[in-house]
Structures are given as C-alpha cells and as structure tokens.
Amino acid sequence: MSPRFAFVLLLWVACTGTDAEPADSEPPPPDAPPPAIDARAQIVRLSMQLAGRRPDPVWLTGSPDAERVAQVLDGLLDDPALGRRAAWAWNEELHLAAFAEDGSRWNEIDIATRRALNWEPLAGVELVVNEDLSLATLVTATEWPANPALAALRGSTYTGSDTEWAWAPYPDGRPMAGMLSTAGLWARHAADATNYNRRRANLIARVFVCADFFDRDVNFELASADVASSAVEEAIRTDPACTTCHAALDPLAGFLGGFGERSEPSQLRPWLTYSPRMAEFSAAAFAPSWYGSPGSDLSELGRMIADDPRFARCMARRTYTWLTGADFDAAPEREAIVAAFVDDGLRFDRLVRSVVASEAWGAEVEHVASADQLASALSDAYALPDGGSGVWAGLETALFDGELRAMSGDTDDETVLVRNSSPGAGMQLVAEWIARSAAADALALDAKRSPDERLLLPTVDSPGEADHRQALAALYVRFLSVEVDADGAEVDRLWALWSATSEDSAAAYAEVLLALSRHPSVVVY
User: In terms of CB atoms within 10 Å, which end of the chain has fewer, N or C?
Assistant: First the structure.
C-alpha cells in the first residue's frame, strides 16, 4: 500500500469514528418519537436541503441555538438557491434533467439547447418559488420561462439578460396552462396515436393531485386471444373493471391533443409547436373533463387543477416527503400544514416553514445527498463560481449525465427512476471525480484572491505550520460542517497527510481536498 493511500485511508477511518452504543443501553419504546437533532444539525440540514450547500461556517461558531436556526431559515428562504433546489425536487417526479432519448430529431439541436428544453418545466418551478408566487402558477401561468437558447428554439422574444431564465410567451398561440403547455414536458413524456394521451393524463393526475391511476385497485382479465386494439378500446368503454379508471382518465386525456407524438415524423419541429387541429381531434375522441367537470381547453384544465383541493394537499404531501422522508399520512401536523399553506396563498416558503416545524423534520435520521446536492455542495466548498446551473461549469456533467447520476445513487431520468435511500460506494467515486475535476482550478482561483479573502489556502503570505493548521481546520468545517481545533486530532491527521504528500504546497492542498471530498460524511447530513 502506498503511503499516500495509507494516509487517505487513515483519514477516512479515523474521522468516521468508532463509537458504539453502550451494551447496557435500553432500547426506546416502539411508539416513542425519534430523538431530535440539535441546533447545529438543524442548520446543516436546512442549508443542504434549501440551498444545496454546506452552511456558512460562521453559522456554526459558538453554540448555535433556536434563535440562530430561525435566522438561518429566514435567510435561506430568501436565497435564490431555494428555487433551484425546489426544481430538483420536482425533477424526482418529472425526470427531465438528464433525459437523453436517442433519435434523429434531437440531432438538430446542440447539447446546451437540449438541456434547456429538458429544464424548461423546472425553470418555471424555480422562478415561481424565487418570485414568491402561488404554486397554482405552475398550472395557470400565461407565459413560461425561457433562456436565450430556448427562446430561439421557440421563436419567443427573450426578455431576460445574459443567460438567465425569464418569463416569455409561446408565439404559436397555444392555450396556456403553465407547465402543462410546455414543449419540454411533453417531449419527455411522449404519447403515441394508440395511447390517446392517456400516459400524459396519468402524469398530470399523479404529479398535481397525487392521484396515480396505477394505484387504484382493479380486477379484470383480458382474453389472450382478443387483444386487438379495437377490442381493447371497446373493453375500456364498456367493461366496468376498465371504466373504474378510464371514466376519469380518458376525458383528462381529451385536453392533451395538439402536442407532438411518437408516431409523427422524426423531425423536431412537431414536438415544439402546438397543433389546434390535433387538439380538436383529441377532444372529439374524448370530451375533455376534469373528474366530471367539463372543460374547453388546456387553460381551463389548469384552472380546474389549481381549484381542486387535492392540488394543495398534493403540494403539501410532496414537500413534506421531500424534506422529511416520512409518510405524510402519518404526520400529526398534516391538516395544519395544508391549512396554513392554503391560507397563505399556496406559497412555497410558508409550506417549508410548516414542514420544518414538524416532528419528522427534526428527527435524528440520516439524509443522503442527491446528485445535485453533492455537486453543488462540493462546488461551493471549493469556492468555485456558479456556471448558471447551480454548480461550477466544470461540474455540470454531475447534474445532467444520466450514468454519472446513477453511479451517485440518483436517478438517470430514463430507466432508473428512484433514488437510493442509503449511501453507496458509487457516491464516493463521484465525489472523487468532482475533487479531481475541481481541485486544481479551485486552488488556482483561491491563490489569486487577496490573502484575507482566501477560502481554501492560508490567509497569510509565507505561511508556517500554525498557519497551515488554521487553514486545514477551516477546510474541515467548510467540507464537513464540524468545528475542530487547529491543534486537535482531526487536524493532526490532515497535517500528516499534507506533510507527506509533496514539497509543493498546492499539490499538498489538492490531496487534502481530495481526502475531505471522499470523507463519508460529505454524502450524508
């Protein structure tokens, strides 16, 4: 074993700790609530969940208390990173960001434009949250965000500045219902002529009112000798076992004609434009209605969804599960959470406050970082500039490459659609890839800062051992959210690694950054 690897392994094991529960400890009663985390752990959890980064070390100094937690929460709810984190939470339902379906139609656009088309529905989530709009805007907005690349693809007038996302109209006169009218959503969740948009209809029911038709109990048998399309459609209309779902599903699908289908030519343009003729054809096949309430077009559908009490409850359910990992139906505060959300105009920040005040949010349970959290937390720890996607431009692959996301235990937005609930070795490999991709640039950038503004290197020119130890202690809290003494055991181990690595100070710090990035605590909080 090489000395360098031995030191990294020693750092990993020693920093992890070997404390065990006392042999004579009494197990808690089965109905007892889980222990609550302290104020320091609450600050770490808030920062990782709402901003996707480790907390500012200043927040952890001294003895954090409930007042500091409240101040941190207030600040994070005003942080633009909140919208991006909310968008990634929605991606767990919509599976858009890394979707990369093969097909000649996609060869017509470059990778940046393809990513913009994928991100289009999520960009609306980001702006709705950051502009403190009602979440009903997600299904009622008359415009939808575009960046310059997407605006050019749509043919929209771009109203933003530089590369930001800004509200923009669709120029083809489609009925607008927020996200439901976007090309990006329906390019990902395609239908074909024989499906009659039922797949898309179920997506709407599942995502916006938490009423997945696949969760319904049905009991039917389809004769193996009679599976022709015409026979299936007849059964759907007449068999009581089929109409249990289709009486509501098919009229919902009636709203969704007009968007591109798989059965159409392989050119990209039909996926980007809206066809009133196909919308009329779909409405003629199934008279549009929302669970028995007739509607005329997609805009009316959006308004009916927003007015449905299940919409507010579904948004509360999704946010609660995202932030706690717990069962919303078992939450004693669930009715109060929904009521406060409705009373405050369906605003996301009010919903977050209610969930953070719940028993389950403060429970002592381990949360595993998602792919975007891992990338953005390390990008921030390395003090690298945001390239526009929440991470340094050199790390965007960790967000949008399906294989790399799956390796880190996340979804690939195509075949792997559920995140791992426990950390795996793949996360460590991705963290190491991030470190090796970022360390040299981060240290070079930090070296250009004035000494008193450095975030990774010592804050004095010509540093001695004491200065290096202070810098190593600062790195420890920056990466792991744990304050340590410059003369403590944790820094002793980092100093040993630093000293054994190289006579080149930059190379030594690169090895320290690699070791900290691979620490098991980086991927959990």
Answer: N
* pLDDT over 90 (residue 235): no
Average pLDDT over residues 54-82: 98
Is the confidence at residue 14, as pLDDT, over 70?
no
Say if residues 123 and 139 touch (Cβ distance below 8 Å).
Answer: no
Tokens representing residue 41 in the block: 């752990």
Across the range 1-29, mean pLDDT stands at: 46
Percent pLDDT > 70 in the chain is: 88
Rounded-to-integer distance, Cα 118 and Cα 111, Å: 10
SS3 call for 347: strand
Q: How far apart are CA 211 and CA 1, in angstroms?
A: 55
Give the sign of the dihedral formed by CA 68, CA 72, CA 74, CA 75.
positive
Give the pLDDT confidence score for residue 101 in this predicted structure.
Answer: 76
DSSP 4-49: HHHHHHHHHHHHH------TTPPPPPTTSPPPBP-HHHHHHHHHHH
Tokens 């591109």 — which residue? 260
Average of pLDDT values for 261-281? 85
Cα distances from 175 to residues 255, 270, 298, 388, 515, in angstroms, run 10, 16, 6, 30, 53
Taking all residues of the chain, what is their mean pLDDT, rounded to a whole number? 91
In terms of phi and psi (left: phi > 0; alpha: psi -120 to 50; beta: otherwise), the region of 62 is left
According to the model, what pLDDT value does residue 11 have? 43
CA distance 338 to 349: 13
pTM (predicted TM-score): 0.90
Asked if residue 252 lies in contact with residue 201, where contact means CB atoms within 8 angstroms, the answer is yes
Which tens digits make up the pLDDT trace of 147-159? 999 999 999 999 8
- C-alpha separations of 380 from 41, 72, 376, 436, 507 in Å: 19, 17, 6, 15, 20
Packing angle, helices 198-209 and 298-307, rounded to 10: 30
Cα–Cα distance for residue pair 475/490, rounded to 1 Å: 11
Rg (CA), the chain: 26
**289 has which bridge partners?**
294
59: Cα within 13 Å, side-chain hemisphere:
26
